[in-house]
Amino acid sequence: MVPSLPWRDAKYIAPPLAASGVAGMASEVSPFEVQTAAVRALEGDIVALLQSVTHPGLTGFFVGMYLLAYPVLLGLTYIGLKREGRGRHADYAFAYTLIVVASTPFFYFVPVGVTGYTLPNVEPLLYEGNGAVQLFMTNVDTLQKALPSLHAGLAGIASLYAPEGYEAASWATTGLILVATLYLGIHWFTDLAVGLGLAYGCYAITPVVKTRLVEWREPQQHGIAGD
Length: 227
Description:
Layout (H helix, E strand, L loop, with lengths): L9 H20 L6 H8 L12 H29 L3 H22 L22 H9 L9 H11 L6 H17 L5 H38 L1
Protein backbone atom coordinates (compact mmCIF):
# COMPACT_ATOMS: atom_id res chain seq x y z
CA MET A 1 0.00 0.00 0.00
CA VAL A 2 1.38 3.42 -0.96
CA PRO A 3 1.62 5.60 2.14
CA SER A 4 -0.02 9.00 2.31
CA LEU A 5 2.19 12.07 2.58
CA PRO A 6 1.42 13.87 5.87
CA TRP A 7 1.90 17.58 6.38
CA ARG A 8 5.31 17.04 7.94
CA ASP A 9 6.57 15.99 4.52
CA ALA A 10 6.21 19.62 3.46
CA LYS A 11 9.61 20.36 5.00
CA TYR A 12 11.12 17.96 2.47
CA ILE A 13 8.93 18.80 -0.53
CA ALA A 14 8.75 22.61 -0.21
CA PRO A 15 12.51 23.36 -0.64
CA PRO A 16 12.80 21.52 -4.00
CA LEU A 17 9.66 23.25 -5.28
CA ALA A 18 10.86 26.68 -4.14
CA ALA A 19 14.30 26.14 -5.68
CA SER A 20 12.69 25.00 -8.94
CA GLY A 21 10.61 28.17 -9.06
CA VAL A 22 13.71 30.34 -8.70
CA ALA A 23 15.59 28.29 -11.30
CA GLY A 24 12.70 28.68 -13.73
CA MET A 25 12.91 32.46 -13.47
CA ALA A 26 16.70 32.66 -13.77
CA SER A 27 16.82 32.44 -17.57
CA GLU A 28 13.83 34.76 -17.93
CA VAL A 29 15.62 37.63 -16.17
CA SER A 30 19.14 36.84 -17.41
CA PRO A 31 20.81 39.89 -19.00
CA PHE A 32 23.66 37.80 -20.40
CA GLU A 33 24.27 36.78 -23.99
CA VAL A 34 23.03 33.35 -25.01
CA GLN A 35 25.95 30.90 -25.29
CA THR A 36 24.36 28.40 -27.65
CA ALA A 37 27.05 28.88 -30.29
CA ALA A 38 29.75 27.88 -27.80
CA VAL A 39 28.00 24.60 -27.01
CA ARG A 40 27.53 23.89 -30.70
CA ALA A 41 31.21 24.57 -31.33
CA LEU A 42 32.01 22.03 -28.62
CA GLU A 43 29.90 19.12 -29.87
CA GLY A 44 28.79 20.03 -33.39
CA ASP A 45 25.52 18.70 -34.84
CA ILE A 46 25.70 15.20 -33.35
CA VAL A 47 22.27 15.58 -31.74
CA ALA A 48 20.78 15.45 -35.25
CA LEU A 49 21.51 11.71 -35.29
CA LEU A 50 18.66 11.21 -32.80
CA GLN A 51 16.23 12.52 -35.42
CA SER A 52 17.50 10.34 -38.24
CA VAL A 53 14.13 8.61 -38.02
CA THR A 54 11.03 10.42 -36.78
CA HIS A 55 7.44 9.24 -36.56
CA PRO A 56 4.33 10.72 -34.90
CA GLY A 57 3.99 7.63 -32.73
CA LEU A 58 7.61 7.83 -31.64
CA THR A 59 7.24 11.53 -30.97
CA GLY A 60 4.16 10.91 -28.86
CA PHE A 61 5.99 8.26 -26.86
CA PHE A 62 8.92 10.53 -26.09
CA VAL A 63 6.64 13.45 -25.24
CA GLY A 64 5.04 11.12 -22.72
CA MET A 65 8.44 10.19 -21.30
CA TYR A 66 9.46 13.84 -21.04
CA LEU A 67 6.26 15.27 -19.57
CA LEU A 68 4.69 12.33 -17.73
CA ALA A 69 7.22 9.61 -16.90
CA TYR A 70 9.69 12.18 -15.59
CA PRO A 71 7.52 13.66 -12.78
CA VAL A 72 6.15 10.19 -11.99
CA LEU A 73 9.72 8.90 -11.56
CA LEU A 74 10.61 11.77 -9.24
CA GLY A 75 7.46 11.43 -7.16
CA LEU A 76 7.42 7.65 -6.87
CA THR A 77 11.07 7.66 -5.84
CA TYR A 78 10.23 9.83 -2.84
CA ILE A 79 7.21 7.69 -1.93
CA GLY A 80 9.19 4.48 -2.36
CA LEU A 81 11.95 5.78 -0.10
CA LYS A 82 9.35 6.71 2.49
CA ARG A 83 8.09 3.13 2.43
CA GLU A 84 11.60 1.86 3.16
CA GLY A 85 11.54 3.81 6.41
CA ARG A 86 15.30 4.39 6.52
CA GLY A 87 15.27 8.16 6.18
CA ARG A 88 16.68 8.13 2.64
CA HIS A 89 13.74 10.23 1.43
CA ALA A 90 15.24 13.18 3.32
CA ASP A 91 18.62 12.69 1.63
CA TYR A 92 16.91 12.42 -1.75
CA ALA A 93 14.99 15.67 -1.18
CA PHE A 94 18.19 17.42 -0.09
CA ALA A 95 20.19 16.21 -3.11
CA TYR A 96 17.30 17.13 -5.43
CA THR A 97 17.28 20.68 -4.03
CA LEU A 98 21.05 20.91 -4.28
CA ILE A 99 20.98 20.04 -7.99
CA VAL A 100 18.42 22.73 -8.73
CA VAL A 101 20.34 25.32 -6.71
CA ALA A 102 23.60 24.40 -8.47
CA SER A 103 21.90 24.68 -11.87
CA THR A 104 20.41 28.13 -11.29
CA PRO A 105 23.66 30.12 -11.85
CA PHE A 106 24.07 28.34 -15.20
CA PHE A 107 20.58 29.42 -16.27
CA TYR A 108 21.29 33.02 -15.26
CA PHE A 109 24.91 33.54 -16.29
CA VAL A 110 25.22 31.03 -19.16
CA PRO A 111 21.84 30.75 -20.93
CA VAL A 112 21.85 28.17 -23.72
CA GLY A 113 19.14 27.68 -26.33
CA VAL A 114 17.43 24.42 -27.23
CA THR A 115 18.73 22.38 -30.16
CA GLY A 116 15.46 22.45 -32.12
CA TYR A 117 15.82 26.17 -32.81
CA THR A 118 19.58 26.05 -33.35
CA LEU A 119 20.59 23.07 -35.45
CA PRO A 120 19.39 22.99 -39.08
CA ASN A 121 18.76 19.23 -39.06
CA VAL A 122 16.91 19.13 -35.74
CA GLU A 123 13.20 19.88 -35.51
CA PRO A 124 11.75 21.37 -32.29
CA LEU A 125 9.29 18.50 -31.98
CA LEU A 126 8.25 19.42 -28.45
CA TYR A 127 7.41 22.99 -29.40
CA GLU A 128 6.14 22.99 -32.99
CA GLY A 129 2.56 22.06 -33.87
CA ASN A 130 -1.00 22.93 -32.98
CA GLY A 131 -1.47 20.49 -30.10
CA ALA A 132 -2.12 21.43 -26.48
CA VAL A 133 1.30 20.14 -25.44
CA GLN A 134 3.15 22.32 -27.93
CA LEU A 135 1.07 25.37 -27.01
CA PHE A 136 1.73 24.79 -23.33
CA MET A 137 5.48 24.34 -23.79
CA THR A 138 5.96 27.44 -25.92
CA ASN A 139 4.15 29.46 -23.26
CA VAL A 140 6.11 28.18 -20.24
CA ASP A 141 9.57 27.40 -21.63
CA THR A 142 12.07 30.23 -22.11
CA LEU A 143 13.93 28.04 -24.66
CA GLN A 144 17.20 29.33 -23.15
CA LYS A 145 17.89 27.14 -20.11
CA ALA A 146 19.15 23.98 -21.75
CA LEU A 147 22.43 23.81 -19.81
CA PRO A 148 22.45 21.82 -17.60
CA SER A 149 19.55 19.46 -18.20
CA LEU A 150 17.45 19.22 -15.05
CA HIS A 151 15.68 16.27 -16.62
CA ALA A 152 19.05 14.51 -16.66
CA GLY A 153 20.11 15.71 -13.24
CA LEU A 154 16.89 15.02 -11.38
CA ALA A 155 16.12 11.74 -13.14
CA GLY A 156 19.71 10.74 -12.43
CA ILE A 157 19.43 11.52 -8.72
CA ALA A 158 16.15 9.60 -8.59
CA SER A 159 17.93 6.55 -10.02
CA LEU A 160 20.90 6.93 -7.69
CA TYR A 161 18.45 6.87 -4.77
CA ALA A 162 16.13 4.31 -6.35
CA PRO A 163 14.20 2.28 -3.75
CA GLU A 164 15.52 -1.23 -3.23
CA GLY A 165 14.37 -3.57 -5.98
CA TYR A 166 13.53 -0.78 -8.43
CA GLU A 167 17.03 0.22 -9.51
CA ALA A 168 16.86 -1.33 -12.99
CA ALA A 169 13.42 0.09 -13.75
CA SER A 170 14.51 3.51 -12.53
CA TRP A 171 17.64 3.61 -14.66
CA ALA A 172 15.74 2.32 -17.71
CA THR A 173 13.20 5.13 -17.29
CA THR A 174 15.98 7.66 -16.84
CA GLY A 175 17.65 6.44 -20.02
CA LEU A 176 14.46 6.89 -22.03
CA ILE A 177 13.97 10.37 -20.56
CA LEU A 178 17.48 11.33 -21.65
CA VAL A 179 16.85 10.05 -25.18
CA ALA A 180 13.58 11.97 -25.22
CA THR A 181 15.33 15.27 -24.45
CA LEU A 182 17.58 14.77 -27.47
CA TYR A 183 14.98 13.38 -29.88
CA LEU A 184 12.47 16.16 -29.13
CA GLY A 185 14.96 18.90 -29.99
CA ILE A 186 15.51 20.21 -26.47
CA HIS A 187 18.93 19.34 -25.08
CA TRP A 188 22.53 18.93 -26.15
CA PHE A 189 24.74 16.02 -25.11
CA THR A 190 26.70 18.56 -23.08
CA ASP A 191 23.55 19.42 -21.13
CA LEU A 192 23.01 15.78 -20.24
CA ALA A 193 26.64 15.28 -19.21
CA VAL A 194 26.61 18.31 -16.92
CA GLY A 195 23.22 17.34 -15.49
CA LEU A 196 24.33 13.80 -14.70
CA GLY A 197 27.61 15.11 -13.31
CA LEU A 198 25.69 17.36 -10.93
CA ALA A 199 23.51 14.42 -9.93
CA TYR A 200 26.49 12.29 -8.98
CA GLY A 201 28.26 15.17 -7.25
CA CYS A 202 25.21 16.03 -5.16
CA TYR A 203 24.65 12.35 -4.38
CA ALA A 204 28.25 12.04 -3.17
CA ILE A 205 28.24 15.21 -1.09
CA THR A 206 24.86 14.71 0.61
CA PRO A 207 26.07 12.19 3.25
CA VAL A 208 29.08 14.44 3.98
CA VAL A 209 26.83 17.44 4.56
CA LYS A 210 24.48 15.31 6.65
CA THR A 211 27.37 14.14 8.87
CA ARG A 212 28.61 17.69 9.34
CA LEU A 213 25.13 18.87 10.32
CA VAL A 214 24.85 16.10 12.91
CA GLU A 215 28.28 17.03 14.30
CA TRP A 216 27.24 20.68 14.46
CA ARG A 217 23.93 19.98 16.18
CA GLU A 218 25.31 17.74 18.92
CA PRO A 219 27.32 20.47 20.70
CA GLN A 220 24.39 22.83 20.31
CA GLN A 221 22.04 20.33 21.92
CA HIS A 222 24.51 19.61 24.73
CA GLY A 223 24.85 23.31 25.36
CA ILE A 224 21.09 23.73 25.63
CA ALA A 225 20.85 20.71 27.95
CA GLY A 226 23.65 22.10 30.14
CA ASP A 227 21.85 25.42 30.52
